[in-house]
Every structure is written in C-alpha cells, then in structure tokens.
Specification:
By secondary structure, this protein is mainly beta. The protein has one domain. The chain has no helices and three strands. Strands 1-2-3 form a three-stranded antiparallel sheet, with no helix packed on it. A hairpin with a 5-residue loop joins strand 2 and strand 3. The chain is globular. The N and C termini lie far apart (27 Å). The protein binds iron/sulfur cluster (SF4). The site of iron/sulfur cluster has 13 residues, from loops.
C-alpha cells in the first residue's frame, strides 16, 4: 500500500467521512486500486481504530486539517461523540 496525504478523488462513502477534513487522517491507496482512510490516532489512543468504519460521522478525535488532509500532528480538540 502507498500512503499519501491527499483526500482528493475519494469514492463514496469515503468522500462523506468526517475523516476527510481531519488532520489525523492519512489516505492509503492499495496496489489493487482500493482506497482506505487511516487514522493516525490509532496506536497512540486505544479509542481509535487504524481503519475506522466509514463513513465516520462524528469523532472525539477530530481535528480540522486546515485544508490539507494528513498534515498537522498536534493533539486535542475534537468534534462531538464518536460513532
Ligand atoms: S481522529 Fe477521528 S475523524 Fe480524525 S482520522 Fe481518526 S477517526 Fe477520522
């Protein structure tokens, strides 16, 4: 798999996921053409799955990316409840 920081061109329902606008998301493109959204909070916080069930509609770990998904690394923030 190849990991990138881009959320452009995501298929439905990934395109509807809260993860798309979250700085903790990393897009992963598989060799078979599949696309996955990886949560970088996983591994640091047991509340998060590396590949959360999509689309995520609410998440306590959400952190606005500021327009460039997969960029920032600071903790804290959040938006509503998860799942
Ligand atoms: S913290 Fe929540 S919104 Fe952000 S990538 Fe992980 S599951 Fe998605």
């Amino acid at each position: 798999m190849r990991a990138t920081g881009s959320a452009k061109g995501l298929p439905f329902p990934l395109s509807q996921s809260l993860c798309v606008g979250c700085s903790k998301m990393k897009r992963v493109d598989s060799a078979r053409g599949g696309v996955f959204l990886m949560c970088r909070r996983a591994g640091q916080d047991d509340r998060f799955n590396r590949y959360p069930l999509q689309p995520v509609i609410s998440c306590v770990g959400y952190e606005e990316s500021g327009g460039d998904s997969g960029g920032a690394t600071s903790d804290g923030g959040g938006r509503s409840g998860r799942d």
